[in-house]
Specification:
Elements lengths: L4 H4 L1 H11 L7 E2 H8 L3 H13 L3 E8 L2 E8 L1 H21 L3 H10 L1
Antiparallel strand pairs: 1-3, 2-3
Length: about 110
């Protein structure tokens, strides 16, 4: 299991984190996702398109009254890819952390 190069990019990782904390049927409005990820409209749109082309998110465009609304939700494929990528990152972090006995010896030497 390796890094998912689509999700690994920091903005796309933030998008997938935000979507994966939701129930699988829930979606986030574009404007709310923009605030969470803290990017411009164009930047968010480009990253969402990349995730959609990979099959990781679904994009729903509708009108509420006369106002357009874009909603984004993670697909089953996207959720699985995110879980695998998160497991990969955890493994990397665990490997970077010295075993507890080495940490204790190092602390005693100080």
């Amino acid at each position: 299991m390796g890094a998912d190069e689509i999700i690994h990019q920091s903005t796309r990782l933030k998008i997938m984190v935000a979507l994966n904390v939701l129930d699988r049927r829930e979606a986030l409005e574009f404007t709310r996702l923009k605030v969470i990820v803290d990017v411009t409209d164009g930047n968010l749109g480009a990253h969402i398109d990349t995730l959609a082309r990979a099959g990781y998110v679904d994009i729903e465009k509708l009108f509420v009254g006369r106002r357009p609304q874009t909603r984004v939700k993670a697909t089953a494929v996207g959720r699985r890819a995110f879980r695998n990528h998160a497991a990969f990152l955890r493994t990397l972090l665990d490997e970077a952390e010295p075993p507890p006995e080495r940490r204790q010896r190092k602390a005693r030497r100080r």
